Amino acid sequence: MARVTAAEAHRLAEADSVLVDVREPDEWAAGHAPGAVLAPLSALTSGELLPPAAQGRSVVAICRSGKRSRAAAALLTARGADVVDVIGGMRAWAEAGLPVVAESEARGGV
């Protein structure tokens, strides 16, 4: 399974891949990448499908630090999806100076 840096993930998401955040809703609300879709690992492991925006597209899985996205990538790859995961997750994304938005705050955090 392929792994990419935050900068590579950003380029893929700007091209034709969809960034899928596999954290829980409260983590998502605190700060996520613009244009990402939420699909918690807990839901995916219980059998839920990817959100419609991610179905049939290349997926870039991201979480907080990279552990859950790696598990999600393995799970989704086993289901036939084309998936890479982000090394270092949203922490690396924010450290790279990439945009972060929040649901409830003016400035996003991870």
Concise account of the structure shown:
The chain is an alpha/beta fold and 110 residues long. It has five helices and five strands. It has helices at 6-14, 25-30, 41-45, 67-78, 89-95; strands spanning 2-4, 18-21, 37-38, 59-62, 83-86.
Task: List the main descriptive attributes of the protein structure presented here.
alpha/beta; 5 strands
Report on this structure.
- The chain is an alpha/beta fold and about 110 residues long.
- The chain has a single domain (about 1-95), classed as Oxidized Rhodanese, domain 1, CATH 3.40.250.10.
- The protein contains five helices and five strands.
- Strands 1-5-4-2-3 form a five-stranded parallel sheet, with helices on both faces.
- Strand 4 (about 60), helix 4 and strand 5 form a beta-alpha-beta unit.
- It is globular.
Topology, pairings included?
Layout: E1 2-4, H1 6-14, E2 18-21, H2 25-30, E3 37-38, H3 41-45, E4 59-62, H4 67-78, E5 83-86, H5 89-95
Parallel strand pairs: 1-5, 2-3, 2-4, 4-5
